[in-house]
């Protein structure tokens, strides 16, 4: 081997290359550890109406490790996304010693039945309710686990369907049996039942909207509840209305007309018998 000049030259070249690489690595390590590359500032941009500097310092900035070269951008992004109200964060380096973070906040739409909030995209997130309701009380959503996107989508439908009445939904509920109910502004509760077909809820809502002027003319703001689950109409309950039991209804039906007319009317019964939930 020692007489093989070509092999010796190759070994020598390899050794030189290793020495050079080691020197470069040592020099690079020394260089990236210089104080000039220590992170001096974190610049926050984007939608931060619900996020303040102390919150970011306490929940994200204090968890950052490394300098301009060594910081883990994925871990940094995750740290910012763990802050309340942050939906998404993008992070990039700014030469020589800064980070730029762009924040996208959740936009609250409603409250969920487990105490969390629902975003305008139907995503659940945890945040301070008082901050979410700075501009007014939020609608109330409720439904089985995993149904938040369905409830959100249906809320937008109800907003559109009941717009002619100028009554926005204040609460939307999907029961465990997947029956829908809505409470409109003013306190009117609507039972819409299950979604039997793609158009069933829209049809029931449209029927109520079309008939509401006549119903309101009769009962005014006393309407408390409407059952829209009937195939060709709906039943209404108004404040102060007392309903007959089936036995009472039978007795009233058996009473002679003259005797019945002589009695003081104390009962209204447009919805005395209501169909069970469909």
TrEMBL record:
It comes from the Bacteria. It is a single-pass type II membrane protein. Residues 252-278 are annotated as: Disordered. GO terms for biological process: cell septum assembly; FtsZ-dependent cytokinesis. Residues 37-106 form the POTRA domain. Part of a complex composed of FtsB, FtsL and FtsQ. Belongs to the FtsQ/DivIB family. FtsQ subfamily. Essential cell division protein. May link together the upstream cell division proteins, which are predominantly cytoplasmic, with the downstream cell division proteins, which are predominantly periplasmic. May control correct divisome assembly. This is Cell division protein FtsQ. The lineage of its organism: Bacteria, Pseudomonadati, Pseudomonadota, Betaproteobacteria, Burkholderiales. The gene is ftsQ.
């Amino acid at each position: 081997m020692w007489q093989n000049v070509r092999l010796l030259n190759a070994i020598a070249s390899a050794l030189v290359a290793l020495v050079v690489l080691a020197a470069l690595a040592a020099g690079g390590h020394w260089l990236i550890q210089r104080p000039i590359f220590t992170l001096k500032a974190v610049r926050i941009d984007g939608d931060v109406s619900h996020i303040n500097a102390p919150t970011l310092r306490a929940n994200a900035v204090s968890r950052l490790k490394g300098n301009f070269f060594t910081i883990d951008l994925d871990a940094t992004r995750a740290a910012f996304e763990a802050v309340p109200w942050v939906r998404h964060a993008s992070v990039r380096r700014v030469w020589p010693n800064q980070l730029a973070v762009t924040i996208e906040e959740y936009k609250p739409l409603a409250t969920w039945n487990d105490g969390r909030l629902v975003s305008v995209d139907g995503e659940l997130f945890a945040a301070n309710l008082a901050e979410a309701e700075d501009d007014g009380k939020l609608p109330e959503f409720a439904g089985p686990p995993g149904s938040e996107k369905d409830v959100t989508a249906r809320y937008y439908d109800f907003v559109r369907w009941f717009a002619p009445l100028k009554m926005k939904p204040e609460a939307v509920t999907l029961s465990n049996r997947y029956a829908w109910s809505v409470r409109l502004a003013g306190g009117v509760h609507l039972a819409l039942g299950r979604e039997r077909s793609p158009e069933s809820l829209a049809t029931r809502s449209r029927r109520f909207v079309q008939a509401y002027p006549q119903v309101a003319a009769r009962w005014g703001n006393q309407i408390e509840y409407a059952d829209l689950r009937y195939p060709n109409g709906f039943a209404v309950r108004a404040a102060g209305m007392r309903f007959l039991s089936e036995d009472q209804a039978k007795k009233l039906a058996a009473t002679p007309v003259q005797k019945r007319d002589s009695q003081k009317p104390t009962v209204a019964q447009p919805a005395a018998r209501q169909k069970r939930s469909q």
